[in-house]
Design a protein that fits this description.
It is built from 10 helices and 16 strands. By secondary structure, it is α/β, with parallel strands linked by helices. The chain has one domain: Metallo-beta-lactamase, Chain A, CATH 3.60.15.10. Strands 6-5-4-3-2-1-16 form a 7-stranded mixed β-sheet. It has a 7-stranded mixed β-sheet with strand order 7-8-9-12-13-14-15. It starts with a strand and ends in a 14-residue tail after the last strand. The structure holds zinc ion (2 copies).
Length: 314
């Protein structure tokens, strides 16, 4: 798997950064995470063919995360796409697409399969095809917003028995529930989530934006090899981050550290930051393996052999 950031700006546009969009490529298949305005041009520039896109995952319906979808769908229509396109997004998106002439189901030469995300959901497996499994969890952002976690499909339900036992999981029924994706409570009263005890040998990618620090973000990032996390502000604007449902670079780094992630890419930068090295420096003081997400750069997502459950510095 590899990840190519196409846009790393938050809602206010700036000359040198695009609005949010990420390409995930796995065995020749392309998956798009968010689709800000201008994404189709950025796909062209990155040399990624839109005909290869199998699914689009939208985090939430703020304009900077999905306005690029309309143009992209029209271009797919003009080139007479035949294969269905999966769109995973809040339910409201169907109504929005319906209201656009040219984007209604009868207008398109291909089928849109919308997997609607409902407000209030705790965890949902949203995609299981093409060798990957994608799950979603809610974030905290003022309006309904989901983060995503991608892993190899053949790895997702394997539980690390020794690790589970060390956390107090003993009964067969508890193992079965964990394997089915459900949390269980130990006899000591501790809640153990499936992501905490997954046997991990495939690469994991987590996508966490836009959000204040929250349990959903932490679970998505658990032991991820590559975590993309928003860092709209620096810590000097922590109040502003809280007011607007965003994270600081320090927040992102703490999530990466507490989740035992391997590598952190910061993104979704406020227009106020011309020099992003201040955000990188702030995060690195907490989580060393941090970088600023560079647009058009391909980041390989590879599995770490010995996965620590938490960072030794934590
Ligand atoms: Zn945003
Ligand atoms: Zn937003």
């Amino acid at each position: 798997m590899e990840l190519i950031p196409l846009g790393t700006s938050s809602a206010s546009i700036v000359r040198d950064r695009g609005l949010t969009a990420y390409v995930l490529r796995n065995q020749g298949k392309v998956f798009l995470f968010d689709c800000g305005e201008g994404t189709q041009f950025r796909l062209l520039k990155a040399g990624v063919r839109r005909s290869r896109i199998r699914a689009v995952f939208i985090t939430h319906l703020h304009a900077d995360h999905y306005f690029g979808l309309f143009g992209l769908l029209i271009s797919m229509s003009l080139e007479r796409r035949k294969s269905p396109l999966m769109i995973i997004a809040p339910r409201e998106l169907s109504d929005i697409l319906q209201s656009f002439s040219g984007l209604r189901p009868a207008d398109l030469p291909f089928k849109i399969e919308h997997i609607p995300l409902e407000e209030g959901l705790e965890f949902q497996e949203v995609y299981m095809a093409d060798g990957i499994q994608v799950s979603a969890r809610p974030l905290v952002h003022g309006r309904f917003c989901m983060g995503y976690r991608v892993e190899r499909a053949d790895q997702v339900h394997r539980i690390d028995g020794a690790l589970a036992a060390s956390l107090g999981i003993t009964a067969k029924e508890q193992f079965q529930r964990l394997a089915a994706g459900q949390s269980v409570r130990t006899s000591g009263g501790q809640v153990v989530a499936p992501d905490q005890v997954r046997k991990k040998s495939g690469a994991v990618f987590a996508y966490v934006t836009d959000t204040s620090p929250c349990p959903g973000g932490l679970e998505l990032a658990r032991n991820a090899d590559l975590l993309v996390h928003e860092a709209t502000f620096g810590q000097e604007r922590a109040d502003r981050a809280r007011e607007t449902g965003h994270s600081t670079a320090s927040d992102a780094a703490l999530t990466a550290r507490n989740a035992g992630a391997g590598r952190l890419l910061l993104t979704h930068f406020s227009a106020r930051y011309k020099d992003l090295s201040v955000l990188e420096k702030e995060a690195k003081a907490i989580f060393l393996n941090t970088e600023i997400a560079e647009e058009y750069q391909a980041y390989p997502i590879t599995s770490r052999k010995d996965m620590p459950q938490t960072d030794p510095a934590a």
